[in-house]
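Usage

Read records sequentially. Each one opens with the input sequence:
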Amino acid sequence: NVAQIFSRSNPSTIFFILLLALFARLILTFRWYLLLHFTDKRNLRDTFNYLNIGYLINDIFPGRIGDFVKSYFWAKKTKVSKSDALASVVVERLFDLTGMGLIFILALFTLDLPSYALKGGIILIALCIVGFAGLLFLAKNNQRLSLIRDKYIAKKTLSWILNKINKLSIYSAFLTDLKLTFSLFFLTVLV
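and closes with the structure output:
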């Protein structure tokens, strides 16, 4: 079946699609590279390799587990905090949601969408707004979160959760860098 499909396809069309897919992968690589701003140990080749490992695993297993795998192995290779690497993936997913939200807005102006699509799109846009507002809140209240975490240091589970939230708040400080944030939005729009 696959051989028949390829035999009837135009080779230049297949080549163009493969070229677009590679271009999209390169943009996604550069976006994740920018999201890994917290370390000087990053490089584009490793970022590209681990991004593709993540996509391969996403193609095989459900639940976007490849995102966790790519951040885990990248952090292990570069010897940086796995929490920081995972925070980059959380923010990357938020940028992906934003890209889907932009597609919804474009569809809103060009198509006659059914009510269920409108409701879903509004929920998507609300998630993007709440997500970025939450990250900005965390970034602006980093010191306060550190004090709260230190207050509950004796309670292991709560302390662990607060520590992860604190890591995300430290990581989210990049959102105050407008040049970096707009670069990430631009790369998201390109993909």
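Summary fields computed downstream for this record:
- The CA atoms of residues 72 and 84 lie 10 Å apart.
- The chain has a mean pLDDT of 88.
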